[in-house]
Structures are given as C-alpha cells and as structure tokens.
C-alpha cells in the first residue's frame, strides 16, 4: 500500500523491490490456494478488505512491473474467487481496465498490458458469460460486457490510436490484440452454445452415406480453412486456473429471468438518459414501462437511490414550482433523517444528493422544507426558536459558501460581517455568536460540496494534448484520481455480500450476441476493408465465421444476413469495382464464405442468396483466371449480326460485369494472375462440396438452398449477351443428389425447381431451353425409375414442367424435343409411371393441335402405343388418366390438317370402349378424388361417359367425313354395350347426343348448315331411333319425351331432307315399338303428331301478296320474342306449342316465318325477292311435311303399304266388275297396323287433323287467283301450284280410319259418332267433287271415289240405307261427268244395291247371276262382316 516517492521510480529502490516482492508472494499464495482458502470466510474477508483495496491502488501504477503483477493477481482472483468478489470485480473493470482503454491519455504500455489481461479473461467461456450475466443483467451494476466489446471494437478499428503518440507498428499490434480479444469472445460464445449446433456433415438426410466416406470428406477440407470442432479456451487455462472456482455463493441460472432483467435494465438506462435531458419525459417513460411508481414517495425514493441521474436536473426538478414537483420534493426531504446531526452536517447531507438550482425562489423552497424537516427530526433542541430561524440560517450558510469559495467574488465576507448579517433571526433575538463563528470557520475550512455532474470530469480529458510530456503529466494526474476513486469504492464494498451467478445455460449467448453484434461487425469490416495485413484479415474472417455461427445457431436472421453480406462483399466477386483488385485477403474471404456454406448450411436461410451469387461469380472469375474465352461461358454467343463476334468485341464482353470498362492485354494478364488463385484445387473442391453436401442439409435448409440457387440461375440466364448455365447445371446436379430424400421434402424442393424449369424451358434463347428440357428428361427418367405407390401424386408434380413448356413455348424445336422426351419416357419407363400419365396425355393433347406434322405424328404414335399396348398390360396403373387418354385422342381427331390421324384416333377411341367393357371392375375399385361418386357409377363417370362425350365433341367440331365416322362409332358403342347401361346413365348420355341438333352449335352459313342437317342430323336421328328401339324397355320412360321433342324440332327446321327424316323416324319408332306403348305414351305420340300437323299447315299460301300490295304495312314488331322463338326452338314444350301458334293470326305468322328464314341467304330466282324466295322454300317444306305426315298416320294406323295395296285391289275389283263378273275378292289380311292400340278418342284427334289438312288443301286448290299470283311470283316451278295430293291423301286416310272404326265391334260406343262424321265428310266430299271444273283435278279424285264407294258398298243394309239416302242425289249428279270405266262399274253396283235395299227393284233372275253376283252373297256380305 505504501506510496512510491514522486518522480520516475528507481528500479533498485527498496520500496519498489519490496512492493514487487510482496505482490509476487501474494500471487503465488493465491495461485496455489487450496479448497479451504478458497471457501473459508475469514480468508475471503481478508481478500475483500485488504487485498482488493491494495490492488486497486497498485492496479494503476505507472511502473509496468507493478502494474503487470497487479493484473496477474486480479486474474487469479477472477478465476478462484469471483463468486465472492462480485462488487470488487466490477470496480476493477469499471474504474481501471475500461478506464485505461477508454481514456486517450493512457500509455501504450498500459493499454497493451490491459489488453493482454483481457485476452486471458476473454479466452474463458465461463468468465465471458458470467460477466454478462452478473453485470449487464444486474440492474445496479455497470454494463461491463457491453462496454468491453465496444472498447475493444474501437481499438480493433484503430480509432483513438493516434492520440497516444504510438508508432504505426504499436498501433497495429494493439489492433491485432483487440481483434484477438473480440474473436476470442466470439469463440467463447460459440463454444458455450456448441450443443445447440448441428453440423450438417455429421448427418445425412438421405440415410445412405457410409461413415467412412464421411470421414474422408472431412479430411479433404483445405488447410487454409481451419474448421472448429470444439475449440476449448486458450491454452493458458491450465495455468490461470480459470473456471475451477467453487460455486458456493452462486445464484441459480435461469436465462429467461436474466433476459427480463436485462430488458428492464435497458428500459431504466433509457429512462435515465431521457431524465438527464428532460426530467419529466424520463419519469413519464419509466412510468409507462412500469419501472417506476406514480406516487411522490416512489419518485423521491428513485431520486435518492439512482446515482446515474444528472444532479443538476435532479435539483431543477425538485425546485420546480409545479404542485407535483413540490410533493416529490417534500417526500424527498422527508425520507432523510437529520436526527442528532448538527445543523451544518445536516445541510451537507441534504445537498449531497443534488445540485442546488441557481434560481433564488427554488433555493428558497428547498431551504424552507429542509429547515422544517431538521426541526422535525431534532425536536429536543433549544437553539432555534422556530423553523424560520433554521430556514434563514440555512440560506445564509449557502450564501457564505458561495461567497468564500467562488472565484468570481473578489471581496470576501469577514466573520464579523457574517455574524452581523444573522442578527435577530432567532425570533428577533440573536443566535449565540460563538455558534455562528464556528459555522463560519467550518465553511471557510471546507466548502459545502454540492454534487457535481460526472460528465464534466470526462470532458476535461478531451482537451488536446500538445506534447508527450504534457500527456504524461496529465495521465499521472488521472492515475492518481483513478486510484483514489478505486480505493474509495473498494473500501465501500469490502463488506458487501453480493450473490454471484455462475452461468450454465447456453441461451445466454443469444442476448449477448444481439447486444454486441454491431461493434463486432464494425471491427471486422473495418479490419478487412483498410488493412492488408494477413493476420488481421484472418482474425477478422475467423470472427465473422464465429458470429455467423452464433447467429445461425440461435436463428437471428437480420444479424446473420448482415455478416454474410459483409463476407460476400469482401470477396469482391459481386462488387461493381470488379475483381481486378483482388488480393490474398479477398481470396481468403472466398474460402471462408465457402466454409460457412459447408458448415452452417442448415441455418443460412436467405443468406444462401449472397453465397450463391458469389459462387456463380466465382465460376466466372475462374473462367477468366484460366483464360477461357467468353464464348465458352454460354454455349454459343452470336454477335449482333448473327456471326461470331470479332475478337475485339469479345474482349470487351468477356469481363463485362466483372471488371467494368474496357481492358487491355496487360491488365488482363495481371488480373488473371491475381484471380488464378480462385481456381486453385482447394477452392474448386470446396465449392463442389457445397453442392454434393446439399444432401445433408435438413428439410427446410435444402428448400432455401434450392430457392436461392434458382434465383441466381435466373439472373445468370437473364444476361442478353452472355447467358450462363452454371447454376442451372448445378440445379440439375443437386436434383440428382437429393432425389433420394423423403417424398415430403422432395416435393417441396421440386416445387421450386419445377417452377424454375417452367421459366427456363420457355426461355427465348433456344440453347438454354434445349438444355433445360434435356436436363428435365434425364431427371425424369431417374425419378421414374423409383416408381410410385398408388394414390400418390409425386410423378404428376415432377412432370408438370413438360406440360408448362409445351403450353407456353411456341418454338417448334423445343416442342418437338418435349414430345420426343415424353415418348422416350413412355417407351422405357411405362411400367413405373403412375400419376405421371396425366402429364403425358396433357403434353400429347397440346401436341395434337399442332400444325407441325412430325410433332403430331410422333405424339400420335406414342399415344397409340399407350392405348393399345400399355393399357393392355398396366390398366390398373393408367386408369386414373383414362379420361385424359380419351380426351387426347379426341384432340387428335379434331386436328383438321391430318385426316388420316383423325380416323385412326376415332378407331382408338372405339378400342378404349373395349377396355371399359372388359374391365368394369377396375373402375369400380378405383378410388380417387371423386369419392362422392357411387362405386357402381364409377365405370360410367370414368369410363363410358368420357368416351361418348369426346365422340360427341368430335361430331360437333369436325369436318363431314370425320364427324360421320365419329357418329357411327358413337352409336356403335351404344348399340354394342348399351345393355350394361343404367337408366340414369342413358339420361346423361342423351343430353350429349341431343347436342348434335342444337341450333346454337350450328355455323351460320346456309350451305354448311344445310349440309349439316342433311347429313349429320339425319344420320343421328335414325341412329337415335334405332337405339331407342333396341333398348325400348330401358329408355321408354327416360327418353320418349326427348325423342318426340327432337323429331318435332327436326320437322320445324327449313330442311326438306331433315323434315322428311323426322316424320319417317316418328313412323319407325311408333311402328316398331307401338305394341309396347302405354296409353299415356300413345297420348304423347298423338299429341306430337297433332302439333306437327298444326305447325306445318302452310297458311301463308292463302294470304301471301307480292310486296308493294296492301299486306306490306304489317311489320314484325307486333310479335313478341317468345312467339318468334316458339317457331324455331325445340326447347319449347310440345304441349304449349299449339297455343302459341294459334295466338298468331295468319298474317303475323307470315311475318314470323319470313323473319325466321331471313337468317339464311338463299340464291334467289331472277326477279324474285330473296325474302319471298326464302318464304316459298319454307312453305314448300311445310307442304312436304303435311304430305309426309298424312302418309305417316296412314302407315302407323294401317301398317306401311297396306293402303296402297287396298287401293290397287279396289281398282282391280272395279276393273273386273266393269269387264266381267269376278269370282271372289280376297279376304282382308290380318291387321298389322297400330289401329288396335289406339283409343277412339285418339283416332278422332288424328281424324280432325287429317280433315283440317284436307280443308286447307281444298281451300287453296279452289283459290285460283291466289295460285296464279304465287305462280307468277315463282312459287314451285312451271305449272300453277296445287295441293291435290294433300287434298286427296288426307281425305283417303280419314275415310279409311272412319270405315275401319265403323266395322269394329270393339268400338260400338263410338259408332254413332263415326256414322255422323262419315255422312258429313262423304257428302261434303262428293259435293266438292261435283263443283270441280278442271278435268285433271277430277282425275286426281278417282281413287278417292273408288275407295269411298267400295267401302260404302261393304256395310250392312241397315247402315247402307242411311248412307245411300244421303248421297243419292249427289251421286246422280256424278253421272254427268265423263267417268273412267272402273268408277262407272262401282257406281253401277251402288245403284243396284240401292234398288235392293230400298226394295225398289226385284232381285235379279238367276240367269244374270253369272254376270253380276249378288252383293249380299259375297264373301264379304255385310252380315258376315258384322258377325266378325
């Protein structure tokens, strides 16, 4: 403890030698201390009370030897006794070590020794973490760890060195030492948290590496990159014995608790900072954060206890006149105890806590309260009469101390003046003179020290030091001051027991690193930036590596990214200045970056981006370093005009983006030399290891790795002049390496890579796209080899890029290549493909519509191969994509450019139907996403429906020959396999089938439309009727309405062929299935016929006028849309149709019709308006339909050809009658028609129609004028139009039905009605015949009259009476005409029978019997007839 004499100490002097000897002895005692010494309270108290105090004095000695020994002793204490010396250690750090580091005047030697010591402390992980936990996380202690790192960082950056007057070399060694300490701290942190770190190279995500291989890769690590296993603290540990302390006094280690403490501490520090600027703001902040109470007592306590508050601000706050401030001030004073203190001592104590404000009022308030409190504490005193006395005295003492001790006051106050000043203050009496005199002497001897603000002392340090001598002087003064402070503090804490926590938990490293990462980064960045010393560079790089490791372990992303970016920046690979300036330290940085990628890959996250960018640039640097020319960087590079760029251009391009600007040969040579190192074996191997090692990254890390690799690859390929494929190549490689990962990880990886291939495969640069597609092919082949379990979708995801490229890339080369790749896959891997079939068909589907023959040809060949061979062998595996296959074939069929392919595709679809038929079970068993489909319907939904649907698409999309083939196949499939279909399947199916007729689907050109109707619709109509007949049982409920509606629609169309087919099909359906019809079905059928009849009566024939005449003013706007639509849309219900039609009068109807036809252009006859022409053609079709329909009804009721035969027979019989007497007429054949299935009511309905049709025809034929008009207008060819066939046909059919009913026993109830009708119809008919003027017209009626007369002749006598009496007069008239012999013969029989029936004539004698047989004796005599 003895002070040395002033002046430079003499090394031989007794004092110095004894001091050094005692320090050495102390050191050895402490170093060899046994367990008892280390734990016994007596020894520990001795250390606290004597040794620490002594050390605090010698620790600032200017004698290097003493200083060094003191430091060694301190180190020993730190290692053995720190648990007992928490406060003492804080004083050492705060007042000595950090002070020496922070002050600019301290000598180089001192700084050097302090840093040496710190190096030892920083090498021990336990010590470093303990310092943080015990001081930085203690609300009452200084932030030693934080200050330490900040100070070391400044030294490492070389800041503040120049003021020391040190040589550059000394400065460099200091910097290195500073860096060494920082790196050492980081290493400790790494060491401390090493259990949390997982080295990717010690594990594998693939589970197929052998350990031996792994060891090999470890040993291959380039020597330049030293790896850290578990580096223990520096070798000095053993000698210093750090870490082997007892934990007797330590608290428990709970990291969460310490983190909370640290946060609170930061809040308090922030609050104090604010307070020292604006007290109220600081207090408000602390209260908001919950660190400070709101009562005046809480605040007063805070002001008393918190030493870091600025004393001036505390004074200002307490003196403020604000009510709350006053309350705080009262509480503040009330918390002080002046009991038993004399007045001046009490005042001194009072003023120790703050600096008195300058304002008199504020001082006044404070003194007033002080006086009151003093008297309150000393109630037994008799000196002061009242508090007023104390208050005035206190005020006068303040004035006295200012007067005596302020340099500004020249004339000092004397004792007499002071006594005089205080006269009469004690309740108008004086205080004792000797009392005041004593006060004066005390103040004169020692002024009342008001609390100064600490910063003031520090500011004085910063005055510039002119010379070394001055600096020494200043430093010695400061050392003295420092020793004093340290000693005082040591003595103050020598009896304090403070618990010391020994850290054990690795979580502490996170907050430590978050606290200190910026100074670390600053130190390392500056070191790398402005210092070329290799040792500095390697320290900085090692520091950055440790920092990255810590940030990684605790996944602190921002910090990690910052360090990795710094590292990447110093490789100079991504810098704009280019790699021309590359030095050894930059090469080392590259190696460090690669090592980080290798050892910390699992944790790098987004930092992979920087690393990938550097690796990408590194490859470019290597190409330049080894002198490879640019054209090899990206396959071929075409110059602007398309040929290879000239050498000059190339040189400029070659270093584009790396060197910047143009370069000449010499520069290139030197650049190549400096970059040559980048392609050294060690670097190349290390980079490779990053990619081969990607298999060992964990599931999340590999996704980041791949994502950033793809991003960099995109940048490489984006270069307009030199796209590079380095990263793309690497993507392919790592895909190979990682394919063995578990599927979950692999699908996440592929999501990124697949998307990348999508983009690259559509690159405008063909070389790039070709490379991408080829790589995809290789990867896919490898991937498919692995096979796939049922219900997985990995293949589908994997092959999706092919689809994308095919869809988006229009280049024929690439499209061709994609198809070839897929074809190769099918040929070699068919057995392994499962969900991939979908993609394959998708690609072929896209190829199918191509115009390039080779693409279509190859795709179709392969599709054909799949459908015929692969389906055969692996149907279960392909069933999922069965629909896709059919769809794909349909697309081939629809490509109009290749008709042969189209036909073959339809054949293959037919082939697919065979699979569905043969293997319905496969579809039933197949489960997939459509779980809502019932198992028994699956074969329909996934098998039949797609086939029939695609065929219907072909029909709707293709040219005639292809669609006809499609139609044939579609109905062939129905007819062949329909027996397996369920009812509701048929419903679905016919929804598609009827689409063929949809008017909406039709092209608008008249010719095409006409062709479509004549061919496809026609064909379909017959086919539908066939299917209906074949599966009548299944379909009658489901389909009949639709079929009738469809037939009705066909008849409505303006196409003669289709209209004829419509009626024809109706006839077929009814004749073939009528026997099985129910009464309801018959009703529907009859109604349908009625509707057709009514809507096709060509009323306009009677009303038409040439344009320009009075009919013209009628316009179409009077019609509603609904009425217009009702004419041409099949979707309107049959039953409602007639009402609509009736609601339109004939004039309107003409407009509707003309409107309807106006959609189609028609080549008009010369001089005829196109509109009329269209109207005429529509009317003509109606006439045709009427005739067809009459025939149809006839055929349905009596079976085809029956009526014709009957007419022929009647005619023949009449001929016979005319020439010679006939023997027998053959008996009527068995009834084949549907007559027996129809009710009388239905027959009457049909009859009404027939007669309406007949009446219309009669009306038209009688209207000579109208016919002439039409004829002139060009209606229906050469002769005048007439409706004779309709007129006679409808009546003939009606008569047949009536006479058939008339003789039908089973319809007795209808006989009366029948007779009534017969009489009317027949008499009207004969009357009409009589009115006819034209010979030809009469001729047309011949057969009709024959029929009528023959039929009447066959009825019984009783009935004959009624008839004959009605017709007789008319028939007599007929005789006037020139009749054909046959008719005359029948008439003759008629008159003969009248004679007999009415008993006018005698029965003829037997002799004439031979010539004229008696009608009664006929085989068909009425009696017999009726008896039947």
Q: Give the rounded overall mean pLDDT.
A: 74
Q: Which radius of gyration do the C-alpha atoms yield?
A: 59 Å
- Beta-strand percent range: under 5%
Fraction of helical residues: 55-70%
| Biggest sheet strand line-up | 1-2
Description:
This protein is mainly alpha-helical. It contains 66 helices and two strands. The protein has a two-stranded parallel sheet. The longest helix is centred in the last third of the chain and has 29 residues, at 1170-1198. The radius of gyration is 59 Å and the shape is elongated.
Could you give a short description of this structure?
This protein has 1428 residues and is mainly alpha-helical. 68% of the residues lie in helices and 0% in strands. The longest helix is centred in the last third of the chain and has 29 residues, at 1170-1198.
Task: Throw out a few tags for this protein.
mainly alpha, 1428 residues, elongated, two-stranded parallel sheet
Walk me through the topology.
Blueprint: H1 14-31, H2 35-39, H3 41-58, H4 64-81, H5 86-102, H6 108-122, H7 125-136, H8 144-156, H9 168-192, H10 211-219, H11 237-240, E1 250-251, H12 255-277, H13 279-288, H14 296-305, H15 311-319, H16 323-334, H17 343-352, H18 360-377, H19 387-405, H20 415-421, H21 433-445, H22 454-461, H23 468-493, E2 500-501, H24 509-530, H25 534-553, H26 557-570, H27 584-599, H28 608-625, H29 647-654, H30 665-676, H31 681-692, H32 699-718, H33 726-738, H34 743-761, H35 766-785, H36 794-808, H37 812-829, H38 836-848, H39 853-873, H40 875-878, H41 882-893, H42 899-918, H43 920-925, H44 935-957, H45 960-977, H46 983-993, H47 1006-1030, H48 1032-1052, H49 1056-1073, H50 1079-1096, H51 1100-1103, H52 1121-1128, H53 1137-1142, H54 1146-1157, H55 1170-1198, H56 1202-1219, H57 1240-1262, H58 1264-1272, H59 1284-1302, H60 1308-1331, H61 1335-1340, H62 1342-1353, H63 1357-1374, H64 1381-1397, H65 1406-1409, H66 1422-1427
Parallel strand pairs: 1-2
